[in-house]
Specification:
256 residues; mainly alpha; 10 helices; 5% strand; disordered N terminus
């Protein structure tokens, strides 16, 4: 067996190792290329048209629904981290809030968006904080406004992936942690505090009422001041003993 192996009839580890490494590199490169092309063209114009059809089919109503979504103001100009946070929330919204009667065009469109969201997961790296409630606040909006938010997320994600398929590998942990700071959380609670909203709504009205009442009281006081001297002058200007004066003396009791 040793001689047969020495004759070169058995594979040798001296050449098998490098070849396996080369094969692994080629396969890995091929997979990365497929993933890049897959992510770059994952969201098509057809998906955006589906969302637009959902928007156009909504009734115009003032009824609002409650849902959790990203507070975009917390990210300033960091669009990538905003979309990474919004992507996982959109998945929940499609599953929990966007419900239509089975086998209807809107229900089929929703299923298509759910399938797209599952495929898009491969294009996003997972950072700590994506599944928690940091950078998230509760919205009360119409279904139309909700769908417009979702379309905006898909449209921006599409544009960024076409530019750089690996753009959502960015680590957004620091951005998510900033939203979790005590100052930010306190600000969010104050902004959502209904008592604070009512206070800011009532104070201007109370001030306006007080100014109006004060103006009316001031006007009546000024008017009384101007009338009193005229009344006194009317008595002084008449001759003593005149019939009119005597008659008024009978009717008017002057204070002692």
């Amino acid at each position: 067996m040793t001689a047969w192996g020495a004759a070169g009839r058995c594979p040798s580890s001296t050449w098998l190792g490098p070849r396996l490494l080369l094969v692994c590199l080629l396969v890995g490169r091929s997979i990365a290329k497929e993933v890049s092309e897959h992510c770059s063209h994952m969201i098509g114009n057809g998906h955006l048209q589906v969302l637009q059809q959902l928007i156009d089919s909504q009734m115009e109503t003032s009824c609002q629904i409650t849902f959790d979504f990203v507070d975009q103001e917390q990210f300033e100009n960091d669009t990538v981290c905003y979309l990474k946070k919004a992507f996982f929330l959109v998945e929940d919204i499609i599953e929990e809030n966007m419900r239509f009667k089975d086998n209807t065009p809107n229900a089929n469109a929703t299923e298509r968006l759910q399938e797209l969201s599952l495929r898009l997961r491969n294009c996003f790296t997972t950072d700590y904080g994506e599944d928690n409630k940091s950078c998230v606040r509760t919205f009360h909006e119409t279904p139309l406004q909700l769908l417009e938010k979702i379309k905006d997320v898909f449209n921006k994600t599409k544009n960024l992936l076409e530019t750089d398929w690996n753009i959502f590998s960015k680590n957004c942990k620091n951005s998510f942690d900033k939203c979790s700071s005590p100052g930010i959380e306190m600000k969010q609670k104050n902004d959502l505090n209904p008592n604070k909203f009512v206070f800011h709504l009532l104070v201007p009205g109370i001030i306006l009422v007080l100014l109006t009442v004060g103006g009316l009281l001031f006007y009546r006081w000024k008017r009384r001041i101007h009338q009193e001297p005229l009344t006194l002058n009317s008595y002084v200007g008449r001759p003593e003993g005149s019939p009119l004066t005597q008659d008024e003396d009978r009717r008017v009791e002057l204070p002692v």
